[in-house]
Amino acid sequence: MKWIAAALCCVVLLASCGGKKEVADEVRQRVQPVDLRVEPDHEKFTVIWETAGDGLISGYNIYISQTPLVNAEPGGQPAATPEPFNATPFPGDTDPSDDIEHYEAEGVDEGVVYYVSVRVVYPDGTLSPPSNEVEAAAGGRGELELGMRYNSANDGFSFVQDDFVEADAVANDIYYYNAAGSHFLASPVRLNGFLRNTRLMKLPVTGSLNEVTARLETLDPQPSEDRVEIAPGDWLLLQTEDDTHALVEIRGMVGEGQDAILQLWYAYCSSPDRLIF
């Protein structure tokens, strides 16, 4: 009878061990990166994603490639695992209280379209399926205060340099002025025919950046004006001399006359003929 009991114990233990391994594998496979998005900036990306599921992980691999790694393959699986952008697995950001991760990828080239995705690295070194893959192009973004034309040190702005320049500088892309109670954002070519010819267009949309970029896909916008009358809440699309683009949201105007300052928010796409914001 003892050998029967021992045999039964072995069977129970084997079944128990097998069950635990299956459960562990199941939990591991449920931990995946999802809802990835990219916020570009000047020569860098902030890659943001959520982690779905529970289980142990060793970190994350971030993939930034000039060719698609996910969407080009049947079933969304890369044909071969490429080298990640990060040299060692990214352990996650410094805020463990939520499931949202932020990774700063610095040193990406301006003017290049990249394809970005993320995979979980499990404790045994294997990888999760990839997240969704998104296109991204580096370019500055942020709030900006533009002084009145010829009356401020900050009366022009270069999107390529991501910095203020003088309104009549050869690198300038935009300037601000008001006349007869109206406010305008304008192309430097109006000041001198040899300066950069920025084309502007007021978009028939309002709302957040995500709402505006979603509408851009259906508008097929063609900026063509050398100046646009502006008011708070307006969104403009600008096309530079180099056929790159910027989105501009008019936030407001402060001050009067020659002391007026235009407050705006901008996002610049450095890849010519692309609208990736």
User: What is the number of strand segments?
Assistant: 16
The amount of helix comes to 10-25%
Listing every helix as H and every strand as E from the N terminus to the C terminus, the arrangement reads HEEEEEEEEEEEEHEEEE
The proportion of residues in beta strands is 35-45%
Task: Supply the helix-strand structural class.
Answer: mainly beta
* Number of H/I helices: 2
User: What number of domains?
Assistant: 2
Radius of gyration, rounded?
A: 26 Å
Can you describe this structure?
With 277 residues, the chain is mainly beta. It has two domains: 31-137, Immunoglobulin-like; 141-269, no CATH class. It is 14% helix and 36% strand. The chain is built from two helices and 16 strands. The chain has helices at 2-30, 209-219, and strands at 32-41, 44-52, 59-65, 100-106, 113-121, 134-137, 141-147, 156-158, 163-165, 175-179, 182-186, 199-202, 227-230, 235-239, 245-254, 261-269. It has a five-stranded antiparallel sheet, with no helix packed on it. It has a three-stranded antiparallel sheet with strand order 1-2-4, with no helix packed on it. The radius of gyration is 26 Å and the shape is elongated. The model is unreliable at 1-24 (pLDDT under 50).
